[in-house]
Amino acid sequence: MSQICAKAVVNGMVQGVGFRFHTAHEGLRLGLSGYAKNLPDGSVEVLACGNEVQVGKLLEWLNRGPATSRVDGIASETVEWRHVDGFEIM
């Protein structure tokens, strides 16, 4: 199983609605590590590292997000592998 890291920026109504909390919960459920943090432009940046299939599942989930949010778009890219402990809400 190959290990990858992906960074995604999620746009829409994603701040102030529990998006980071739910993303961290979903990431941990999938066995991933990384972080979710608010950006000044109102979007959320997510780094997810782990099994390639599981990272793909989180990216699919990010396209929907939790029921409290509205996702208008997502841009993601594979980034250099790095070890991250846990899934942090920043």
Helicity, in percent?
25-40%
Strand order of the largest sheet: 4-1-3-2-5
Question: What's the alpha carbon Rg, rounded to whole Å?
Answer: 12 Å
Portion in beta strands: 35-45%
CATH class: Alpha Beta
CATH architecture annotation name: 2-Layer Sandwich
Outline? globular
Biggest sheet: strands, sense, closure?
Answer: 5 strands, mixed
Structural class: alpha+beta
Number of helices: 2
Overall average residue pLDDT: 96
CATH topology-level fold name: Alpha-Beta Plaits
What count of domains describes the coordinates?
A: 1
Order of helix and strand elements from N to C terminus: EHEEHEE
Termini distance? Answer: 29 Å
Give the uncertain stretches in residue-range form. none
Per DSSP E runs of 2 or more residues, the count of β-strands stands at 5
Oligomer: single chain
Active site: 20, 38
EC number: 3.6.1.7
InterPro entries: Acylphosphatase, Acylphosphatase-like_dom, Acylphosphatase-like_dom_sf, Acylphosphatase_CS
Organism: Photobacterium ganghwense
Question: How would you sum up this structure, described in words?
Answer:
Its EC number is 3.6.1.7. It is an enzyme of class 3 (hydrolase). 27% of the residues lie in helices and 42% in strands. The chain has 90 residues and is of the alpha+beta class. It has a single domain, classed as Alpha-Beta Plaits. A hairpin with a 5-residue loop joins β2 and β3. The model has no long low-confidence stretch (mean pLDDT 96).
